[in-house]
Every structure is written in C-alpha cells, then in structure tokens.
Design goal:
By secondary structure, this protein is an alpha/beta fold. Helix content is 45%, strand content 11%. The chain folds into two domains: 4-158 and 476-505, Rossmann fold, CATH 3.40.50; 204-459, Glycogen Phosphorylase B (Rossmann fold), CATH 3.40.50.2000. The strands form three sheets. The protein has a six-stranded mixed sheet, with helices on both faces. Strands 11-10-9-12-13-14 form a six-stranded parallel sheet, sandwiched between helices.
Length: 506
C-alpha cells in the first residue's frame, strides 16, 4: 500500500497505539495532530516531523501559522461550495448569554478558521483526515466540511453512537449519511438471517427498555449534588493556592462578553467558568418551572403525533441535522400536514432541564422558545417526564430530529418521522422527511393505515450487527481502556475496523 499523509484529530496519548499500528502496518504517516491539550506530548517525540495543534486554541481563534507558512486565503468558490452548512458552523460558536457573539463575529470566526484549515491542507497536502469521534465542534466540523466537500480528501471518523445496546460501532465517512457502513448490505438481495443481538435489541424496545447509554447519562447527572458544588469549589480553591489554577484561563471556548472573539478577555477564567456553570444549572431548573407552567397532561384518547424534542446543543442536532437543527422548521411542516382535530404533543427532552454541570439546555431554550411553541393552534406542550413508551403506543405517529424514539416507534408498530441524519434514517420502514412534500406523502400513507414492516426492521438491525464492531471501546474510552486486560487487542480491533472501512469506501 502506498504511503498516506494523515491528519489525526482527537487521538490523545492512550490512543497512540492506534496511530502506531496504522503507521507501521499500513503506511499512514502522521503529518498533523490536533488535540485538546495546549501542550504536545508523545506526538512530538514519536513523530517529530508532524505538526501539533491545540483544538482549544483553534476554538478561541488562536491560529499559529509558524509551522505551516503563510496563510492561504479562502475565496468565493470555497464559501459558495460550503454555503449550505455555514449556519450550522456558526451556531457552534458558544456564547454564555446568547447575545455576546454577533452574527458578524460568527461569520468572521468561520472565515478565519476556514482560512487556517485551507492553509493546513495546501501546505501539508493530506490524503486522509481521521477523527476519533464525530466532527462536531466549530474547529473540527469546519475542517470536515472543507476537506470532504471542497477538496474531496478522504475523511474517516469513529462513529460514537453505541448501537443495538451492545456498543456496536461503525466507522463513518459521512455525517450526512451515517448509514453508509451498513446500507449496502441492508439494501442488497442477499438473504440475512436475523442476528441474536439485533433481535435482542428489538425485543428490548418492544418491551419498553431504554438503551443503557441513555440511562447512564441520567445516572451520571444524579451523582452531582443538587445544590452548590462545594467539594469541587474547594478543590479549585486549594489548587489555586498552589498553582493559581482558578485565575488561569479556562479551556472552555465559550464567549463571556462582547469583546472581540480573538481577545483573551472574552473567555472565562476557571473560577468564572465554575460560577457560570452554577448559574446555568439554576437557569435549567428555572426553565423547567416555566415549561411546566405551559404544559398540559396529554389526552391519550385524542389523535396525536408525539414529537420528541432533541436535547440541544448536541452533535446529533447541531451538525448532523442540517437545517433541521432549527426544530421550528420540523414543527412547521408537521403542523401544516396535520389532519383536522389531531394535535402534536411536544415533549421537551428531560436533559434540557438537568442540573448537572454539563447540561447546556438553557443555552438553547428560554421562555420565549416555549411561548412560541405554545402559540401553535395544533401543538401542545406536555410534561417532560411523561412516559415515552406510553406516548408511542397511544400515538398515531412519532416524530424526532433523529432521536432513538423514532426507531423505538417503528419497532413497536407505530409510523415515525425522522428529520435529521441518524443511524436508522435509511430504514425503509421509517419516513425520512426532507421536504414538505415528503411529509404530505407520509401523512397520506399513515391515514391509509400504514404499519411499519417488522421483517424490514429486523433486516436493518441485522445489517448493523453484521457490519459493526461489537463492544468497541469508545464511550468513556479514557477510563475503560486502562481497565482492559488486553488494551492493545482492543485497539487492534479499532485499527481493523478503520482499515476495513477505508478499503470499502475509498
């Protein structure tokens, strides 16, 4: 195999073995590493000819051209080619109040980071760019768009979605179509015997069992004290006494004021960020009270579409859903095709109101958002703790941007809409909505008595089982890899999956 020049994004120290194996066995030569840390570690020592860049610095508009030469400007050809994605990129710029990052600053930041990646690509001339997860931040997503959609560079990422409730993972090559790794097998004429893991997962959904990765997220949040986080605060104070940690700039690239985005004064110190998190936790709680005041108990005897709102901000909606990142677009479409005397029951994602420090729900929701939703004549807000499976079973159809609930609906025999790019969107038994016309056709079929094809659904899940890598380490990777009895074997499985996907697609 000929040598390939590779940019690695997010392959920190305990993934070094993966990089080494791809280098030693498959001639993938690293030319650049992009990591969270500000300081290069093993990559400098093991691959001295490669360039190291900090993703944290990039997200704060600190672009170091010293090692890559003079900047290569972007032009109208690049901007026009990527224009359909520009709003998604700009929405990734984090803002603590919603008013600190003007549209003009977001545009300037977007153009600046495109210029940086344009310089990297023209200087290093990579053959492959690989991410350890979805490209989902403003720094990695802009690189993905430029490399894939303008320069046609081979792109690969380890899809973090744990499928079939047994940590099946696939290697992706398209955020817009995450089904590519298994679609060909699913859509083929080959007979597929329903796999055990696929059938177990389907039976769990039919029995009303929530996937483990979802329950795990809520359990983590439950471990956080509901009140002020004194233990964490005192720990930060102690570290500040010896290392001045609290007064140092936080690695979080979230803009705290209206000063220029490239200014160090526009980002939080660690103390400031801690108290910002505390304020956000309180906002999440207050937001729930507002939502609850507007919500009504659902009448399960009426005809309704259950709309399961997406938690935002999140990769699956901010990048993978395209224009439908704006949920009002999907609500408008469903509202327009809804038969008379039907209603849309909108249930906000419960994680929006979670008081864990990593829940950012109140950054994307406020009282005006819910008031606007409540103004639709055929939309009603219902309590966020209403049982999902009860809603599915009593609905006429289920809708989401790409939430697992749409899959659970068709498994339980209910029609479902999906608007975003999700692992199940290519299943022929689900209504993939891109246009108003799609929704009208789907609604006509539902009114004619459409029922999802269970054999088709089982075939789809089996294609995933036959294509994916079972129990691939990804979720909480840094914690779990050190617990493995054979960590190198686990990383070898990742290497094998990467190479298989690369050969199959490219």
């Amino acid at each position: 195999m000929s040598r390939k020049k590779v940019i690695y994004y997010g392959f920190a120290e305990n993934k070094k073995y993966i990089v080494d194996q791809l280098h030693n066995k498959h001639n993938w030569d690293p030319v650049m590493f992009v990591e969270w840390s500000e300081v290069a570690d093993w990559s400098e020592l093991a691959y001295p000819n490669s360039i190291y860049s900090s993703s944290t610095s990039l997200r704060k508009a600190r672009f170091n051209y010293d090692l890559i030469g003079n900047a290569v400007p972007i032009d109208s050809l690049i901007i026009d080619k990527l224009s359909k994605y520009s709003l998604n990129v700009m929405s990734l710029a984090e803002d603590s109040s919603g008013w600190n990052y003007s549209i003009f600053e977001r545009r300037d930041f977007y153009y600046s980071i495109l210029k940086y990646w344009n310089t990297v690509i023209n200087t290093l001339k990579p053959d492959i760019i690989i991410w350890s997860s979805w490209p989902h931040t403003i720094s990695c997503y802009s690189l993905y768009l430029l490399s894939k959609n303008y320069y046609s560079i081979d792109v690969i990422f380890i899809d973090p979605m744990p499928m079939l409730d047994k940590d099946y993972h696939v290697i992706g090559t398209s955020l817009e179509n995450p089904c590519l790794p298994f679609y060909e097998l699913y859509d083929s004429d080959s007979p597929l015997k329903t796999g055990k893991d696929a059938m177990d997962y389907i039976n769990k959904s039919r029995a009303g069992v929530t996937p483990k990765h979802i329950t795990d997220d809520y359990e983590k949040g439950d471990l956080v004290p509901s009140g002020f986080r004194w233990a964490e605060f005192l720990k930060l104070c102690a570290s500040t006494c010896f290392k001045a940690t609290g007064f140092k700039e936080s690695p979080r690239a979230i803009k705290k004021n209206r000063k220029p985005f490239w200014s160090a004064d526009s980002y939080f110190s660690n103390f400031e960020y801690f108290f910002y998190e505390e304020r956000r936790r309180n906002r999440n709680r207050r937001l729930k009270k507002i939502y609850d005041s507007l919500s009504v108990k659902p009448d399960m005897t009426t005809k309704f579409i259950y709309y399961a709102a997406a938690y935002q901000p999140e990769a699956r909606t901010n990048t993978n859903c395209g224009v439908y990142e704006d949920q009002f677009l999907s609500i408008d479409i469903l509202s327009a095709v809804l038969p008379e005397n039907w209603v849309i029951y909108y249930k906000e994602n419960a994680y929006t109101f979670d008081s864990s420090p990593w829940s950012k729900g109140s950054e994307k929701r406020d009282k005006y958002y819910f008031t606007r939703l409540n103004s639709y004549e055929n939309v009603e807000l219902i309590p966020s703790d209403t049982d999902t499976f009860n809603l599915i079973d009593n609905s006429q159809a289920v809708a989401s941007l790409g939430g697992t609930v749409s899959w659970e609906a068709i498994v339980r025999g209910k029609p479902a809409f999906t608007f975003g790019a999700s692992w199940f969107m290519a299943c022929k038994s689900i209504f993939r909505i891109e246009s108003l016309a799609d929704a009208r056709v789907a609604m006509d079929k539902i009114l004619s008595g459409y029922v999802p094809n269970q054999s088709d659904i089982e075939r789809y899940a089996t294609a995933i089982e036959m294509t994916g890598t079972k129990k691939m380490l990804h979720r909480d990777y840094h914690e779990n890899i050190v617990k493995c009895s054979q960590p190198e074997r686990e990383m070898d499985r990742i290497v094998e999956a990467i190479m298989k996907a690369y050969k199959d697609v490219y």
